[in-house]
Every structure is written in structure tokens, then in C-alpha cells.
Amino acid sequence: MAIKILLNEDEIPRQWYNIAADMPNPMQPPLHPGTGQPVGPADLAPVFPMNLIEQEVSQERWIDIPEPVLDVYTIWRPTPLYRAVKLEQYLNCPVKIYYKNEGVSPPGSHKPNTAIAQAYYNKVFGTKRISTETGAGQWGSALSFACNQFGLEAKVYMVRISYEQKPYRRLMMNTWGATCIPSPSTETEAGRKILSQDPNSPGSLGIAISEAVEDAVTSEAAGRPPTKYSLGSVLNHVLLHQTVIGLEAQKQLAKVGDYPDIVVGCAGGGSNFAGCAFPFVRDKIAGKQIQIIAVEPTSCPTMTRGPFAYDFGDTVQMTPLLPMHTLGHDFVPAPIHAGGLRYHGMAPLVSQLIMDKLIEPRAVQQLETFEAGVTWARTEGFISAPETCHALAVVVQEAKKAKEEGKQKTILVNWSGHGIVDLGAYDAFFQGKLSDHEFPQSEIERALKAIESFPKPKL
Fold first, then answer.
1. Is the Cβ–Cβ distance between 363 and 297 less than 8 Å?
2. Do 325 and 32 contact (CB within 8 A), yes or no?
3. Residue 336 pLDDT more than 70?
4. In sequence order, what are the residues at sequence separation of 6 or more whose Cβ sits closer than 8 angstroms to the Cβ of residue 167?
5. CA distance to 87, 94, 404, 412, per residue, from 90 (Å)
6. What does the pLDDT read at residue 335?
7. Which neighbouring-strand residues pair with 364?
8. Residue 4: φ, ψ to 5°
9. What sign has the CA pseudo-torsion 102, 105, 107, 108?
10. What are the residues facing 130 on neighbouring strands?
């Protein structure tokens, strides 16, 4: 029998949790690339509305969720917490496995938790149009949904290789009224520059970010409606909005008198991982014994092999310098990589917590992730997004480790999204078209060279 732990609508958290208030070591500030000085709110104002900038720099522990945001959240929140009984039986290991199902949102992932908030704050600020980037399409479809909810125009620059591999994500965006184009494109100076260097560029999140930021800051001169830029991961306010996941999970586990020994989430830029993990990181800072694992692909090993350094968030160097684990702002993932999680950098908050040894990063191979996703589908029934499969691979690893150690453990995993519109990747896996990919040492050396002239974070 399936075990599902539910909350009532009146149990949706009324506040987001801001981990910046509790970190043992404060995060290094973003720097202005021209002056090398910390970035202030005025520097961010051309890109973001001031109400989100205030959240970005806030040190308040709890930030109220506006009622209009809560109203939209009730379309799918609170999300169910399941116990993966059939997977437990299949693995035959001494573990209890719980998963927070964020795939029940209209776009099918955790991303609307911040998309709805960002669309709301932009609407209140007077923004009429939002530009953004998307990799596999989860963020682009979420923001398209959110903009539709609040009557805003959306323009999405989608990484070209994903635009070609995942047409149904693009069609989801179109259905909600957004315009989605492949990146690099000929519509921006940044895109034209990349195409002049490589007409067949598969694109990257760094390139798409450059295009979306340029779109926002040049909107007035181009005669477009008042436009701001929106990001689906990495930044503090984005991770803040996602903490509704972990806060709900804590309430649900309390209902059954349980608490995890291990919390697992996949991590590309850090949003879904942080959303589930940060409330538990708070407990760990307070002395709770808990292992918290952020999982990434070996083909984009930002946390496990990238240095902790100041780097640009985009390829064309339009953003501030961010203190983060990075593979270099000009990093482009190998086209063989089908599992999302393609960003060259990791959220500064997550990066700092890794440096403080409160979070453990781990990289997994592509074939192992899809094997875990298929096992999950054939036990728990749900087809997982390729990104989510990375976390599931580590759930399997930790279950087997518990058996080897003879220890009973409870595992919580954030099931960050379904894979119904990502079946092309599963098809490639079944046909043997996917392979593992080792990140070459030469790429690490290139990353170090790309950032060698930038300031170094204080450790």
C-alpha cells in the first residue's frame, strides 16, 4: 500500500526561510566587475525590480509570503510527501525513503515556487515584460505559466541543444503565451557574437543568460515594454522562495514522527536542492546530526571539481562577479549530456555551505542516473525528470551503503519534477545512444585560466 502524507491548504508555510540569517560564515558579496567593489542595490536595478533586490540582500530569517502568491500556490500546494515503499522492498536495504513530490505543479516541477513569486513582485513593481533563459525547459515553462497568471509578457531564450531535444517544453511555453527562441540567437548582440565564433554552437545557460539580460537592459532603447530579467536558480531570492518545499516536508515528517538521516537533491544551479535542504541545514547548524547531499552530473561537475572563485554568471560577462563553485563562464556542456543540470556555476549560498562542510557534493555518471530513473518508474510508478534521476541515483547508493554498514537510515529526497515531456532522453537511453562522460582535467585548467585575473573569495 502506498503511504502518502498530506497537509491541508491552511498548513502551507506563510513565510519563506532565509538561511543567510543563520550561516556560520557570511557569504562573500557579489562584486562589480569594473570597480571590484561590492555590488549595491542601484547596480542591480536595471535588471531586477527593487522589491526582489531587497530580498536578495536581506538578512531577515523569515520573509512573509504575499497572499496573492499563496493564492496561486494553492493550485498545487501543499505537495504530497510519499514513502517509497515499493522501492524499499526492491532494494531490500534497511532504509525508509521519503520523497517530496514537486512534480504535481502545472509545469511539472518545483520551479513555479519562485516563478510565481517573481512574476508577482514584478507585477507590483510595474514590470510589463520579463526576459529569461532556460536550459532543459523546466524554468522557461514555469515562468511562462507564472507570467500568464499575472498578465505579463514572457520572452524565453532556450539553450539550443535543449530547444532541439525537447520541443514539448517549448510548446508548453507557447501554450501559456510566452515566446521561446533557441539560444544563441541573432536577436541580441551577445547571441550574434557567439554565432560569429561558432555558427553551430549548441548553446549554454551562460550564453542564454547573456541574451536574456541584454534583452532586459536594452528594452527601453529598443521600444519594448518595461522589461526586467528573471532567473530560475543561483540567486539568493530564488533559493529563498523554494524553501516552502523543505518547510512543508518538515511538517509532514513530524506528522509521522520521523526525521531524515540523509537529505538528497539534484543540483544544477541549486534551487530545488536548496529549497528542500536549507530548512534541514538550519537544523544541522543548530547541532542536528544529518547528512545533506547535493548531486550533479560528472559531465558538469561544478561543485565536485570546479574551484570556489569569483566568476561571471554569464558567458558575455554582463553580470556581477559571484563567489561560487564554477567551471568558468565560457563552459559549454558536452552535447552527449541529456540530463539537464548544465549550468557552469553553483548558487553562492550553496557554494559557501559546501566550503563550511555543511553540504556534501557528489557527482554521478549519466547511465547510472537513467538506470535509477527506470528503477524508480518500475517501482514507484512516477517517471522522473532526467535532472531528478541524479538524486535518485544517490538514494540507491545510500540505501546500499546502509545495508553494507548494517545501519537503519531514513532518506528524504526532493523529487523535483516529472519526466513526461522528457521521454526523448529515456528513448535515447533505451536505444543505447547515451554514454557516460568524464570531465577532462584540461577543462578544469581552462576554467582556472578563465578566472585567474578575478578577485579571490576570502576563506
1. yes
2. no
3. no
4. none
5. 5, 11, 16, 17
6. 67
7. 297
8. -125, 125
9. positive
10. 154, 228
pLDDT of residue 437: 81
Every domain of the chain and the residues it spans: 3-12+77-108+243-450
Gyration radius of the chain over CA positions:
20
Q: Is residue 412 within 8 Å of 98, Cβ to Cβ?
A: yes
Give residues with Cβ within 8 angstroms of 101, minimum separation 6. Answer: 79, 80, 81, 82, 382, 415
11, three cell numbers: 498548513
Single-letter amino acid, residue 244? V
| pTM of structure | 0.95
- For 5-19, 285-299, 437-451, which range has the lowest pLDDT when averaged over its residues? 437-451
All 3 cell numbers of residue 348? 553562492
CATH no., domain 3-12+77-108+243-450: 3.40.50.1100
Q: Residue 440 is which amino acid?
A: P
Find the mean pLDDT for residues 98-113.
Answer: 97
State the Cα–Cα distance between residues 232 and 173, nearest whole angstrom. Answer: 15
C-alpha cell at 305: 571539481
Q: How far is CA 342 from the centre of its chain?
A: 10
Q: Are 303 and 195 in contact (CB under 8 A)?
A: no
Assess contact for 32 and 282: CB atoms under 8 A.
no
For 96, list phi and psi in degrees, rounded to 5. -110, 130
